[in-house]
């Protein structure tokens, strides 16, 4: 029994006697008195030393001390509360139970003190409490109940829980006993545990261990359970929790057998499980001693042939069902024998024969034979032969092959009878399968060596097993008579692999022969012809004798070749091992290459055979003869085309040496190359070999040499005589006539059809003069490289040449005869012929002109490098040199010819259109209405130029005419840039800009007119892109002529002609008037800060000079505006230049679409196209970095006229908290702007007294239209712009001071936004 543990419980009863002080004292006294003792001690007997009386006294004393009059119910409740609150319930009951009513004690045990069913932790303490209650209050717990409780305590600590618990139930445990539900629960749990243990042993077929574990159960049933009624609790509990307890109780196995089976390994038991189960319990009927007995008792239906015994199936003949028990007995004996043999193969084959498939007498016979033989090796082979059917073929086949000779031994007769049919069926099926597989692999090109090897090995085994032949097909037995040896199969596989991987090329015929031979030997006889069989056998013999690759490759080539018969090939194979290695190597290469290059192979074999002994020649001569016949005339053509004359003659000589008299016979069956006539002619050519060799060196004479070497009868039977005549003429040829004679003889045709004409021509050439020979060469050249018509014209011309002799003319006619042409007359020429000749002459003329052009380009290049030297060189050879202008014009591309005009030998004039310029651009650059620009250019080492507008020529002679007088600017290397005016006409910023650009280009010297034209065109395309002085890119497009930030450029521009600066007076006098009014108003304040970069020290001087000026409209139309201004005062010129250039932007009157509608009558509008390049660049950066719905916004700013000049020159500045602050800065420092013009209008100061007397503007107020590219601060339509670079002044609206209202933003903002967008896009 586990050690007793005291635990507290939760109680629901409360009493009025629950005095904490007294009860605590009681608990301490009781615990102290009991110590660690309990009612039941060791050995599960009453504890004699337990302090029963002392505990009672403690309780009695406790009750006496309680005040008041207590009833029985009150006392029971009080003591029950003490018991429930005490840790050791058995001790508490021993102390209080005597003073309580029996019912109160039993209710407490059945209720609050009871434990959960199956609680093994609380059960010992609860059982002690029951026993204590019996001792102090027998009315609550009887003595019998206490005895059963002690038995339960003892059974719960034994090993055999179930047996002891069942005995308690059999002894009697009434339902009203407190332990009744607990013992039933314990019996159920013990049944499940015991059943699980037995099922594990059953699954492992550990029958001996299971028998030992259940032995008591059978005795117990016979002794106790069967003598009691069926409704006994023990029986019910067994059936509920241990369903097969009867089977285990009735089980009576053969102990000797199951003990022997213990020697099986777990794997063997698992293998034989279906047989081992027969000696196990009867789980079918639960009443027989074993499953085997149950099956036998059931009996078998005689009409059936298949009977199930457990998981086994026994097959017998019809009506032989009574034999099944005997088969079961035999099977179990075999299982016993398998234990004795103690080998895995015995159990495996037993399982294969009788477990994995149905059990038959035949299979039992086989197993009994194996058991009788007692030879583990034979059992292993039989096992492998049968079990390996589902494994690898090799394992099974190897076992069968080893088993076949064993089955032929006399002592194995019974085994052979038992399994012979199966073995024969397997062998037959295996052979058929291998044969089918081999055929399939050979057809599909898959590897077949493994199948061939297995098939040969299988057949080899069957050849030595004649007892099996009656079971095989006759065709298969017939194969065994000529079955290939393993060495032959390996040799054939080696031949095939060598052929497939050979570098000799296509050896598919060899592969096919080997495959066919293997099929004939291993699958079906008669599938190949006799020649193939003989050839393959000869190849096998050679393969065994010759191990070197050369002989093997040569052997494959001999077998592969089709040019000789099988007998010849076999003879060659037999001789190969005896031939020298060098000869074999050469022969192999020749035969190997024959299929791809048969003609070279014939030549090479001929040469090779002349180097060996007669016996070898005799063997291989038929091979060569067959090769020569097969190639026929193609061999002759090849030899003539590829062999030199000396090689050809040697080749024929070698053939005569090999074939001897066969060459001299006229047999029609001989190869063409062996014809006697060919060899006789070859003998005649020996004396002409030097001539023929010379002809070979001439690439034109290929057909000629072939014709000479081939000889023959020709068309008229006199070809060889004619050829010999030709060779004699060439043998004695003179040096001066050799070129033309070589040209003529090269025309000899391959068939010799024109040999007679060639001979006549060569004969006549020998009498011609050198001029006649040259004429012949020209005619030959024209025939070969020109058309026939042209050649005939040339021939006719030469024949009419008076310098030619009669013999020359005869030679020409002979050559013409060879060439197939004749002299022509006008009557002979057709229209087509005339056209051909005309086209030829035209082409010749074109070539002459092209050559002249090439020479002219060369002259021009030389002059560009050394003009004087080139002129002297031309003069020395009598060629007139051209002028510099002509050279320059000659280099012009075609596209510029129409825009460049020569004036004289020194000058040209270029025309440039100005139609692409917009009206604002014309205004800004002083071009007026001009549509074209003329560049007058002097071509010289130091070039000069001047510029003119077409509008300047009205009523005058056009600039550039020879009679016009020009004073161009001459460009000197290292000199200064041009300063206007240059030559005639008005000056302008555009002319200044272009002149500076052209001068910079020409500083390094004149290159070409094209380069000048490209430069001027580029500048005109982007007039407002760069600095007007140095041309440096501003980085942003400005809308007017201005300089970069470089002070050098600024000073250079200020020192330019007055006409340049005052050009705007002619173009837009109102804008200049506005500027002067701004200056006058600013000077009237006396504040020089409002006059940036002013050249004068005080405002009084400025006012004084301004008062001297006339109105701008009077100056606009004056012819000599510069002279008029200089006539006033030198300071007047200085002032005007400063006023017109101080603003690096451009101010102009707003005209046309640039004028904003809705402004009141009498208003003036001016557009400030741009500020300085630096300000515009900063403004552009703000546009690209500003994220908004539009790129910029329209704002307005009010100011006074005196501040306007500084704003125009410098842009709006943040003047908050400076002396120049005009109004407050309520929202902080910044430029204050508004979205509504009316808001800014209130800040527009009146013009006041600062009004220039000559101005057309009087009593005006100024409103500025702004473009904003950044955020502003403020509200209510007011923007405080912190960064002034985000603002650009675009419009100056000058309105009469007396107007009552200004336009609303909604009426003017869209038009202003459109103008701003056009300025940004470059459209203006």
Automatic annotation (TrEMBL):
Alphabetical keyword list: Glycosyltransferase, NAD, Nucleotidyltransferase, Transferase
Span of the signal peptide: none
Domain PARP catalytic: 1178-1246
GO terms, molecular function: NAD+ poly-ADP-ribosyltransferase activity; nucleotidyltransferase activity
Spans annotated as Disordered: 1-24
Pfam families per the UniProt record, alphabetical: PARP (PF00644)
The UniProt record lists the keyword Metal-binding: no
Positions with biased composition (Low complexity): 7-19
Name of the protein in question: PARP catalytic domain-containing protein
Species name: Hyaloscypha bicolor E
Lineage: Eukaryota, Fungi, Dikarya, Ascomycota, Pezizomycotina
